[in-house]
Amino acid sequence: MEKWTNDQYYAFANLFSRVRAKGWGGDARKGDGLRTLYVAPRGELIQPGKGEPQAPAPLGGEPVALDAPGDRREVLADWLTSPENEAFSRSIANRVWANFFGRGLVESVDDLRVSNPASIEPLLEELSDYLVAQDFDLKALMRVILQSETYQRSSEALSENRDEKGFFSRYYPRRMMAEVLHDAVASITGVSSGFTEVALRDGSVQKTEFYPEGTRAMALYDSAVKSYFLKTFGRNEREIACEGERSNQPSLVQVLHLSNGDTVNEKLRAEGSIAERTALQFAAGERKAGALVNEAYLMCLARYPTKRERNELVRLLEAAKPGEEREVVEDIYWALMTSREFLFQR
Amino acid sequence: MRSFLIIACGIVAIFPVESLRGASSPSASSSADAEKGLDYHEDIAPLLRQYCVGCHNDDDYKGDYSVERYIDLVSDDLGETMVDPGDVDASYLMRLLTGDADDLMPPEDEPQLSAKEIALFRAWIASGGKGPAEDDSILSTLKVREMAPAPGTRPITALEMSGDGTLAAVGRYGEVALASVDRDGRMEDLRVLGAPGGKVNAVHFVKGARDRVVTAGGIAGLKGVATIWNVATGERLGEFGEGLHRDVLYDAETDPDGGLLATVGYDGKLVLWEVVTGRRKRTIEGHNGAIFDVAFSPDGRVVATASADETIKLWEVETGRRLDTLNQPQGEVYAVLFSADGKYLFGAGADRRIRMWRFVSAEQPGINPVRHSRFAHEGDVTALELSEDGKWLMSASVDGVVKLWALPALVEARAWAGQSDDVTSLARGRAGLFYAARMDGGTTRFETAGVKAPAATEDLPQGDSGLAIGALREPGDILLLSEEEAGDAVTFPARISGVIGEEGEGDEFLFSAKAGEPWVLEVKGERMESALDSKIEVLSEDGEPVERVRLQAVRDSWFEFRGKDSRQVNDFRIFNWREMELNEYLYCNGEVVRLWGYPRGPDSGFLVYPGSGTRHTYFGTTGMSHALGQPCYVVRPLARGEEARPNGLPVFTVYYENDDDPKRRLGKDSKLAFVAPEDGRYRVRVSDVRGFGGADYGYELTVRVPEPHFSARVDGFKAMKLARGEAREFVVKLERFDDFEGAVRVEIDGLAPGLHVTSPLVVEAGQHMAMGVIWAGKNAPLAAGDSSAEKPTIVARAMVGGVELEREVAGFGNVEVLEATEDPFRVALYADGESGEPMVSEGGRLLELTVEPGETVTAIVRARRGEFEERIEFGKQDSGRNLAHGLIIDNIGLNGLMIPVGKTEQRFFITAADWVPESTRTFHLRTVQDPKVATQAIRLKVRRPDDQAN
Is residue A163 helix, strand or coil? Predict the structure, then answer.
């Protein structure tokens, strides 16, 4: 349910009525994909049932005269980012919020409509107003959110708020999204993935040299880049214009891939990985077992190990036969990177 | 259907009786009640109606149990004593209600009886559980609060005149009355004929009778009843429907003999009754919604029903089988009727359109083609009626307008606005009179006398150029100028070289032209490797666009399934295509194309002109890409100054401008035909359509006198090897220039002896191809191609502007005649039916096949397979060769016309659209895979039946 009327729908659509194209017809399976786009000086979208066009208008914005010269899309672009357009500032504020909390004040973040209100309306309004007041400075908004007590809350549930899911009385734990998780593993191990292949829609695979060695998954601009890891952890396939396309659903495949798959294990085994480096240092006596364990915890979990954790792992390391140090180091990193503490933001 | 409108005001609030009782006696379950004994009708039936009978009725019979009648309620058929009078504990019903049994009734997720209500049941059983005196179904009565109707108005819900127009039957709530009609058509109330209970939604005189009237009505939610009345005495001669129709009837009509009665109503059933015996002949179910109207065909063999499920269905009276579903309407259908001659069928309703179908499925199931579909009213169409002479159709709408339509063109002839309330019914009176009856109780009389039928303006417009070719003009010398030399004013013909040097720039040249003077404007850009994507316009002297034509939309549609690129001719899948006709113009977001070939089957779309290659555009518009879902419209060009007839659809203005050559020969270069609308000065403007510019955006603008002409070539062979007795196809392809649209005749002479060819061939006006066959006789002299001394001559001729234009046709190679193999592969055409004779005799005599416009003929293609064992394919959309425009090979599947593996023959169908003019052409088939052979050609004639000859 939405408050927009059919009239407003056609007024909005009429903003695009003069955009014309020659060449390709838009069918993904046919043609060369090349089209010439231009803006015609005339032309209207007729509203069915009325037999005439609506004066073009952004949703909730002022209409433009039908005979007004110029590209109507510019009117739309101006309105989109105008401070008066609450829909824009609310949407952005909500998305930034959702980025840090795993859940929007309006959920889903692309489902903004009158019949899907924010869980805390005054908060969203405040954030939206603040964004406008800061001249749409996203960093300013992020700073406010990150400095908030709300963001810094523990994810430990109390019996009173265990079932609470929309009012941010505690932090809701969530798995890192596919790209972040991938980049975390690459960053810890010091071994990057090569993004060298693009999977086309017809099922074929093409080589690409577009992404230099060391490119982070976050920096991929094309969801067609082949990566089993990203696919498994629910990368947004970008086939439809909907945020719900990204999946954060846990699956058995994800568990198996982390434990036995080639991403974590291969990176640890790779030449120059953190496991190799620290194991060599340890074997050569350049680094103590305790320091190695400390580093592993700091790298993976951003904290020091507890005394028990540390003692246990130090004991394992020191019991390693000569030549087997690396295997033990790999196991330590493997255990840390497949732990819930690593996988989840809490 | 007459008065479905009453539905809205006919829904009477139904209150459970106890709530009314509750108001008067607050202690409903007091012991006082138990003492005086509870009444089954007053106390128990309302509860059964509210909680039980929805499932446990005689129709649904859930759990093999019905509570409709007392006798069933208390029966112990289920193996349990449902009600043991006087003994509450022994009554299974009580245990069901309280959940003490294994089952709970009503089921858990249904509304439950209150404790008070259960107590009522208990008290009733305890007090003896007595039944009613008359054990009628509890669904046959409703307890409703009496509500006084609003004073003053008595809506007329149905009206009909007797055949002689002297007597009117008037339906109102609860009554049917008679009125006399005087010589001038004035109605005067006579008397009330009778009082059928409930509403009267339709009233009709029994066909061919003045002494009997049938009414249809009943009570919403309860029953539908049709009654036949004796006009003289008011006696009820028969009642139909009760117990079978569980809801109100909207119509009841007798067949032409008066022997059968058809009843329809809210329950979606069509029931046929024998009038004399009152016996039900047949119940026909098939609609997914209420049926508002029913009509018999004039011969009484087919009955049509109009339904809320947005269809009209046709049923065979004798067998009850469905003959067709007319699914074009896009809203509830409120009215349906047949023309008196049985040739047409009309329907109208909530989609505001009137449709006229050709009625062809009288004997066999078949598709009844839509003849016309007209946007008729600004609101739902509520009633239709035909004049006695069949020349007029009357329509009424909730928009308060009554309209008169001229037939058979279905063109609006007159509109009367301002009806003071919704029209429920239209009735035909005597001598060209019509009556409209309204909800406010009034009637209005209309006269058709003196109304003139407007000229049918739906004739297919010819040509699009507006280039009045007339006498050819001298081309004159073309002046060569630079942009600077041309300056601001220039005299044509001329060729101007220039550059669009800046972004957004447009070069303008002023020139003078006399009214009606045609010019052709061409820009050369891409063809000389300029970066320019040129656009050309003709503007008025002060820079305003000049109107070329206005196009009125007559049908709205949109692109289905997938988008279109800007070049393709095929697969125009557009919504509601069945209501479109070949040669109609289709306006798509600024581009105008023209429909050339029908979609073949469910997985295809229209072909647009020219039918193959790259699509043509019309009125100077430019080929564009079209998005899935984009609106498009069938449009009709309006003559200059012609008023657009209001139809709720837009009128588009096309100006003199072009981006890419409409005939698509010049790539991105522009071409425009301009005819000055009046004496004056105009501006030619050249620019880049994207608004680009720069040093490498050069162009040459040529403005010249039109030179209508054509060129032709033969496709198919350069050098051909032909075995004796074998036939092959060749194709003549035509290019048309400067809006030359006439027919071209191609003659072939000088073939070696023993060779035969179809000659002359005619490329029809507006078309671009003709196909012929060449075949070698059985005894044709063997000859090597290169030794053939004489080459055949092919000449194409046409009249252009009163002068015959002759063109040599190239591409016809030499023919080498070979000995036939022992068992050659051949295909041939045979007549369908008894004789089954070959259509081409040994002597090469051509047999004839004749098809009427709007009809289908059959023929057979037979193969002598020789060593060829695979499927023999004759093509798909293009399988019929050299067919006149508007003729198709019909009923072919996704694989096209073919002879399957293991078979040697195939029957096929040739269908002619009903607008196709008379013609005589040769026709053949050819295989599309190797070996590519053709049948010999036969002669295919299109002839109108004598009585329709033009």
Answer: coil
